[in-house]
């Protein structure tokens, strides 16, 4: 029983990382209706910025994260301006998808040039050991608790922002109907830029937490967690912010359970099989809205 | 205006390519220098291996050229990036052939090496891979390697454990089932351990797609009472395993292979995590013999970091080519195929002493495999120390 609980806890700590990455994915998808495949790599850049701030320049962790947030927000706005905005009118959605993949490779290779391929060992931004239950047999790491709390705070903040502020309402309007939003006097381009700015700022936080939990930083650090988080976002219902959180946690727990009790080799196959079954049974994801086909 | 700029650019580009073509033609016709090519990843996830090989070869080539070359002929050396991708590796091979390459040192990583060996066999081009460990890398008679093959490393590790005080340990394994290197060592380790009667209590794996969280594998090993964990994997993942092992409070002895080499050079890595880690590796940068000290100093001067065993393998490869070429009287005006035939004979008769990657000598079998002794190294106080 203790073993099982420990496995669940390990799963939740992995899942909380997926969840916080998935939040950024789903937010950009929900509003700009585009899959930003470079999101994982913005996270990696965030990780490097925190590393540079904290280790090389000796900032305190909070200041380093703030520095990374500003850096990533600027990077987000810049990539949106340079790579995605010119394609917004393109006839096919595929164009912008391919561009996102290009941006992803671009960021990886730029980081390879600047930071080299040698892995860097990250010092956790969280020094708290966490809590022990049942005479130290159950351990919940500090980073897990912080990640979950950060995830919930971000989730609530985003919900409030979208429901209560004018800019948030504009985002909602743009996500529902770009044409009508323009007619209502909303600056669609500005709104989408803002979405990217927020999504990329979140990526910096996710990067700091990802690298604190799994402290090896290479230019490819963001790629696989990015894809897993994308799966989590789809599982939870892409576009739905609470769905991303739920999907991330479920994915982490499913992955760890199958590694522990079924097979370490088949773990990924099982996780993706769950995704396929999910999509067959509920194509919109767990918390996704069913879209009415317009005929 | 725009058109003018474009036209100017076009003419510039065309002019440059003509110049480049001239350069190539002139070089190939020379025949007075040896042209040795190298291929390996200098960008991409395996870049650390390729760039060390590139720099180590150039150090060896500079040394040999300064000392008068091979049989009085200077060496020209060119290294191409393959990004650890088989297709790009073959392209790199073709472009080196256009440049006039006569012998190949490479390729650095196993997958691309197998692909390129198909091409070198067609051309009968001599190839000596410093670090292609997969069995098939040297399946043709024109291909040799400096490093141990994967099965050799697995069997040697099992043998080392059986001969040491660790022989009664309960052994757990974590390996990467998505790469040839790791599965190759794993399979031969398990087979040899069975023969030697070692006690393997748990055998777990991960893949390249899920190489960040190892808590489930570590928990399985801990449950089965493992007190020695065999890690035939690369150090990037190993550094995570060492970190997670500490947080869950599981404290076995870890035993790795050459892929673990480099773990202490991970920037900002907490070296105390690696305390007591053992690894079987052909090269130790902290050895105090003149050869190692000279190489490590030159390497550090050139690149700013300590070389890993890939670099040492590559350095030995260049000197092996030099020695064989001298014994066989090879000159640059011979055809590629004649050079290859002479090298093939020479490799099986040469004895390399005074090398970086073995405590004794290296000889080669006709199958392309080196005969040499492994060294076991243990990490103490943040340094690699010879285990004997």
Explain what this protein looks like in three dimensions:
- The complex is a heterodimer of chains A (295) and B (388).
- Chain A is built from eleven helices and four strands.
- Chain A is mainly alpha-helical and 295 residues long.
- Chain A has one domain.
- In chain A, the strands form two sheets. Chain A has a two-stranded antiparallel sheet. Chain A has a two-stranded antiparallel ribbon with strand order 2-3.
- In chain A, helix 1 packs antiparallel against helix 10.
- By secondary structure, chain B is an alpha/beta fold.
- Chain B folds into two domains: 202 residues, Response regulator (Rossmann fold, 3-Layer(aba) Sandwich); 131 residues, Rossmann fold, CATH 3.40.50.2300.
- Helices cover 46% and strands 17% of the residues of chain B.
- The longest helix of chain B is centred in the N-terminal third of the chain and has 29 residues.
- Chain B is globular.
- Chain B starts with a helix and ends with a strand.
- Chains A and B meet through helix 1, strand 1 and helix 10 of A and helix 2, strand 7, helix 7 and helix 8 of B.
Question: Any descriptors?
Answer:
heterodimer, A: 295 residues, mainly alpha, two-stranded antiparallel sheet, 11 helices, 4 strands, 4% strand, globular, B: 388 residues, alpha/beta, Rossmann fold, 2 domains, seven-stranded mixed sheet, five-stranded parallel sheet, 46% helix, 17% strand
């Amino acid at each position: 029983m203790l073993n099982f609980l420990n496995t669940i806890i390990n799963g939740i700590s992995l899942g909380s990382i997926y969840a916080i990455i998935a939040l950024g994915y789903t937010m950009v998808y929900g509003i700009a209706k585009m899959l930003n495949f470079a999101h994982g790599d913005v996270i990696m850049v965030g990780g490097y910025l925190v590393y540079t701030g904290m280790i090389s320049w000796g900032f305190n962790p909070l200041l380093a994260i703030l520095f990374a947030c500003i850096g990533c927000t600027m990077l987000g706005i810049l990539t949106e301006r340079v790579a995605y905005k010119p394609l917004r009118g393109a006839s096919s959605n595929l164009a912008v998808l391919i561009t996102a993949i290009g941006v992803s490779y671009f960021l990886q290779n730029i980081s390879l040039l600047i930071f080299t391929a040698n892995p860097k060992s990250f010092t956790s931004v969280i020094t708290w050991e966490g809590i022990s239950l049942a005479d130290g047999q159950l351990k919940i790491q500090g980073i897990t608790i912080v990640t979950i709390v950060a995830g919930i705070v971000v989730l609530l903040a985003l919900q409030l922002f979208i429901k209560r502020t004018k800019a948030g309402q504009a985002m909602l309007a743009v996500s529902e109907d770009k044409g009508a939003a323009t007619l209502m006097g909303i600056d669609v381009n500005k709104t989408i830029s803002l979405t990217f700015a927020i999504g990329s700022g979140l990526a910096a936080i996710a990067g700091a937490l990802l690298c604190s939990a799994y402290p090896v930083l290479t230019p490819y650090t963001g790629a696989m967690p990015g894809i897993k988080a994308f799966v989590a976002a789809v599982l939870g219902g892409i576009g739905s912010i609470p769905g991303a959180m739920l999907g991330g946690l479920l994915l982490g727990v499913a992955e760890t359970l199958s590694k522990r009790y079924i097979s370490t080799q088949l773990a990924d196959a099982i996780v993706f099989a769950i995704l396929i079954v999910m999509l067959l049974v509920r194509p919109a994801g767990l918390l996704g809205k069913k879209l009415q086909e317009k005929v | 205006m725009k058109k003018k700029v474009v036209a100017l650019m076009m003419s510039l580009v065309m002019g440059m390519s003509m110049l480049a073509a001239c350069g190539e033609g002139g070089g190939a016709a020379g025949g007075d220098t040896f042209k040795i090519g190298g291929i390996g990843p200098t960008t991409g996830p395996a870049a650390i291996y390729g760039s060390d090989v590139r720099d180590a070869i150039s150090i060896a080539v500079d040394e040999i050229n300064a000392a008068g070359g091979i049989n009085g002929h200077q060496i020209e050396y060119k290294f191409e990036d393959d990004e650890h991708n088989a297709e790009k590796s073959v392209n790199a091979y073709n472009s080196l052939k256009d440049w006039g390459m006569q012998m190949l040192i490479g390729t650095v990583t196993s997958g691309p090496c197998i692909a390129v060996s198909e091409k070198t066999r067609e051309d009968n081009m001599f190839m000596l891979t410093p670090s292609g460990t997969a069995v098939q890398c040297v399946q043709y008679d024109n291909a040799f390697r400096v490093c141990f093959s994967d099965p050799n490393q697995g069997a040697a590790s099992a043998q080392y454990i059986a001969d040491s005080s660790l022989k009664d340990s309960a052994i757990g394994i974590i390996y990467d089932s998505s790469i040839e290197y790791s599965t190759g060592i794993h399979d031969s380790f398990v087979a040899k351990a069975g023969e030697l009667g070692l006690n393997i209590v748990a055998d777990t794996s991960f893949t390249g797609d899920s190489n960040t969280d190892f808590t489930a594998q570590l928990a399985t090993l801990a449950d089965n009472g493992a007190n020695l964990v065999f890690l035939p994997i690369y150090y990037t993942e190993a550094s995570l395993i060492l970190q997670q092992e500490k947080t869950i409070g599981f404290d076995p002895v870890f035993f790795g292979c050459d892929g673990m080499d480099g773990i202490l050079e991970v920037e900002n890595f907490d070296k105390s995590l690696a305390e007591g880690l053992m690894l079987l590796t052909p090269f130790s940068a902290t050895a105090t013999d003149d050869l190692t000290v000279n190489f490590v100093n030159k390497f550090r001067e050139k690149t700013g970091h300590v070389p890993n065993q890939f670099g040492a393998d590559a350095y030995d490869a260049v000197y092996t080519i030099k020695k064989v070429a001298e014994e066989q009287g090879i000159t640059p005006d011979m055809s590629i195929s004649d050079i290859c035939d002479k090298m093939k004979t020479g490799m099986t008769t040469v004895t390399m002493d005074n090398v970086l990657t073995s405590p004794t000598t290296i000889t080669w079998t006709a199958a392309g495999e080196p005969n040499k002794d492994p060294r076991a190294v243990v990490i103490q106080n943040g340094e690699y120390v010879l285990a004997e």
